[in-house]
Amino acid sequence: MHQSGSDDLQKTEKFLIASMENLQDLYLLMISTLIEIREKEQTFLDISRKKHLATAEEKDPNTKFVDNIVLKFLTENKSIANAVEKRKINDWKQNDDYILLLLESTKNSVVYKTYMSNRINTFEEDRRFVMDLFSEVIAPNDKLYEFLEDHRLTWVDDIPLVNTIILKQLKAIDHTKESSFSVPALFRDEEDEEFAIQLFRKTALREYELAKEFIDRTPNWDPDRISEVDTIMLKMAICEFLHFPSIPIKVTINEYLEVAKEYATPKSSLFINGILDNLVKDFQRTNKLTKSGRGLL
């Protein structure tokens, strides 16, 4: 809203909701890379076998990769298939050149060559291979990153989170139980989803009122010299202090210090911590905080 100079709350809120929904699309796209790479290799082996002058190796290839227990498990997983269909995730069908690039990178990797040194599939080795393949070959791939960056504006921020979730899920897979791997819900509950929307609305609608809380307390700082990102984070944190009674003070401060480390300048977290700490003391002294529940102060 600030960068565009817009005051269209409804339009920006729709973008916020879409960006949250797109997080799940990114998850499905990333987990689908493993499925699509395996299927590309399976197609390649099938075509090679049928060649008129197929070599002995082409007639009897090492199928350990396509027979990987975990990759087959993911391919047959109904939770993934249903979510992909529901969200209409067909990016790799339309851009299969990226899958071919990832397959080539896979075959050239030490992870793959070590794994393919024999023809025996065991669950533990197969799972370790898939985890290493994802973390060392797929996730760091520059071409894939460029594709994701161009595809959705907000995905760059979401990639580390999605990759971490997928690795945790791969580690916990039990190939004898389909329920051991399922597409995670985007929100824990309705309250979780509503919080993001309410935080945006309350901050946007009260931003001048919220800004006064810290501008009046920073006489040594020229407001024009405080970065725009810092001011937005301060407004959001103060909004949580004053208008979200169930969120503990310490939780709010810790969260925005982490956000500052990710999005702001190197000194922002120290600046924000100092401002928020002083504000809390003032709010407590003037009984401006209305936190409810144990341990919220």
TrEMBL record:
<protein>
    <submittedName>
        <fullName>N utilization substance protein B</fullName>
    </submittedName>
</protein>
<keyword id="KW-0804">Transcription</keyword>
<keyword id="KW-0805">Transcription regulation</keyword>
<feature type="domain" description="NusB/RsmB/TIM44">
    <location>
        <begin position="188"/>
        <end position="281"/>
    </location>
</feature>
<dbReference type="InterPro" id="IPR011605">
    <property type="entry name" value="NusB_fam"/>
</dbReference>
<dbReference type="InterPro" id="IPR035926">
    <property type="entry name" value="NusB-like_sf"/>
</dbReference>
<comment type="similarity">
    <text>Belongs to the NusB family.</text>
</comment>
<keyword id="KW-0889">Transcription antitermination</keyword>
<dbReference type="GO" id="GO:0003723">
    <property type="term" value="F:RNA binding"/>
</dbReference>
<dbReference type="GO" id="GO:0006353">
    <property type="term" value="P:DNA-templated transcription termination"/>
</dbReference>
<dbReference type="GO" id="GO:0031564">
    <property type="term" value="P:transcription antitermination"/>
</dbReference>
<dbReference type="Pfam" id="PF01029">
    <property type="entry name" value="NusB"/>
</dbReference>
<dbReference type="InterPro" id="IPR006027">
    <property type="entry name" value="NusB_RsmB_TIM44"/>
</dbReference>
<dbReference type="GO" id="GO:0005829">
    <property type="term" value="C:cytosol"/>
</dbReference>
<keyword id="KW-0694">RNA-binding</keyword>
